[in-house]
Amino acid sequence: FRRMENKKEKTFQFVVVGGGIAGVTLQCVCHVSRTLEEFDVEEQPSSVLEEKFPNLTIIHSVVKSLHTKSHCVETADGRVFGYKKLCVCSGARPKLLTQDNPYVLGIRDTDSAQEFQKRLSKAKRIVIVGNGGIALELAYEVEGCEVIWAVKDKAIGNTFFDAGAAQFLIPSLEADKPQAAAPCKRPRFTTEEAAPGAYGHGPTDSGSALGPDWHEGIALRGAQEVRSCMLEYQCEVEKIFTCEELHKSPEQTLRTELGDWPVYVRLTNAQTFGCDFVVSATGVVPNTEPFLQGNTFVVADDGGLQVDDHMMTSEADVYAAGDVCTACWEQSPLWQQMRLWTQARQMGWYAGRCMAAHILSEPVELDFCFELFSHITKFFNYKVVLLGKFNGQGLGPDHELLVRCTKGQEYVKVVLSGGRMVGAVLIGETDLEETFENLILNQMDLTPYGEELLNPDIDIEDYFD
Ligand SMILES: Cc1cc2nc3c(=O)[nH]c(=O)nc-3n(C[C@H](O)[C@H](O)[C@H](O)COP(=O)(O)OP(=O)(O)OC[C@H]3O[C@@H](n4cnc5c(N)ncnc54)[C@H](O)[C@@H]3O)c2cc1C
Ligand SMILES: NC(=O)C1=CN([C@@H]2O[C@H](COP(=O)(O)OP(=O)(O)OC[C@H]3O[C@@H](n4cnc5c(N)ncnc54)[C@H](OP(=O)(O)O)[C@@H]3O)[C@@H](O)[C@H]2O)C=CC1
């Protein structure tokens, strides 16, 4: 304890670990409705930020260890900084199918996206494993390459929607893609030359996570003329093996059938595919190791640091926000945590408010943004809005669904519980997000409207105005 005390170079009121939330600048927050927001994110040189905020000091180094008892952090270059309040925003890293296999890639930050792009440019066939955000994006975006997409479930996109929505989206995988859209106006991410030991090049080995439109600035093109996507449903990876291993196999016919590839993937449905490489799009693990070791943080089942309704961890004066934490407060019946940019921003902002309020001994209430889950994104070139318990999460059989679908145009699903709207999935330009958000928030009894609620001839926005 005394050794650390003596080593402290300086003690700050607030210390934030991680440049995802702390280091990005919100340039333009555009409120789509009360809880839905779209925003641009711009990476800026730290000198610009320090000039703009004279109370801010940016230290380019990996935090190697945290000493909660002596309230200090030690960086990879041996510097020690004290804190009054600390917020851990160290994000997450891909939960890969297998570690240290050069043929298995994960995508998280600019470096890993560039590595993927480089490998893809020479690839004729890739296997994508996973059924969440990254797999959905890649299966649609990758051009000039044969894609085998292995999913555990009966339908695509299980983390974001149900089988009905998946069915609506599937034709887009098979169809020719629309002409390239107008270039996206959001600023692109670039990798700055970082000092040795700075995050992204040090022991944590990863930069900040990518976000919306990450693939629009880079060509995701393989070495074939055409693209194709073949889906393998309800299967997992049984084994990944190299061509050397295959050649040792006594089964001559298998070797001939599979052809020559650098790597092979055997799935649990007894299918084996050769490919140039495998993308493991199988979720994330919160970045708590190794720098939080030696403390007594209470960790949730998903590996995140448990935080309460003031974003406080189990260690005194240590807060956490974003992908690294797991929300363990009594949650609103209409909200759930998902490791998304939107929630990382909201949590970071709210943690900052709580830290300041605690220093000033002021009360602070759980922010309104945690009342209702809302996410706006794009899949297969469709706008996708998810509200509340959009997949009937945690509702058991006690809920009703209303669906309206126009092929190639829109998919609207409403989740009702006890006659009240508790969730919705809106795909396409439905223009319903604001009205539905209000109906979910005000919990109006919608029983009298029955299926008319989704009658396309009724201007619902006008009706409930
Ligand atoms: C390919 C991809 C596409 C995505 N698309 C979307 C999307 O369209 N919409 C959406 O809402 N979300 C999206 N996400 C998810 C979103 O990017 C994350 O949820 C969000 O960025 C998490 O923010 P964060 O600040 O918690 O973590 P991160 O952005 O990962 O930031 C953590 C930071 O901490 C630093 N760090 C870690 N350990 C240390 C240490 N010991 N010392 C110092 N620094 C450290 C890291 O270098 C990093 O800079 C996407 C993610 C990926 C990978
Ligand atoms: N547009 C957006 O909003 C986007 C958001 N993101 C975010 O970025 C992060 C990383 O994305 P991603 O990696 O796609 O993570 P996700 O959590 O979105 O999806 C992971 C998927 O992999 C499945 N899975 C987990 N383990 C295995 C396994 N061993 N074998 C086969 N499948 C497995 C999961 O199934 P199960 O759920 O059953 O465990 C789930 O379908 C996520 O937080 C995601 O939300 C990423 C891209 C776009």
UniProtKB/TrEMBL annotation:
Known cofactor(s): FAD
Keywords from the named record: FAD, Flavoprotein, Oxidoreductase
Coiled-coil segments on the chain, per record: none
Domain FAD/NAD(P)-binding, chain residue ranges per copy: 60-148, 265-348
Pfam families: Pyr_redox_2, Rubredoxin_C
PANTHER family: PYRIDINE NUCLEOTIDE-DISULFIDE OXIDOREDUCTASE DOMAIN-CONTAINING, PYRIDINE NUCLEOTIDE-DISULFIDE OXIDOREDUCTASE DOMAIN-CONTAINING PROTEIN 1
Function: Probable FAD-dependent oxidoreductase; involved in the cellular oxidative stress response. Required for normal sarcomere structure and muscle fiber integrity.
The protein, known as: Pyridine nucleotide-disulfide oxidoreductase domain-containing protein 1
Taxonomic path: Eukaryota, Metazoa, Chordata, Craniata, Vertebrata
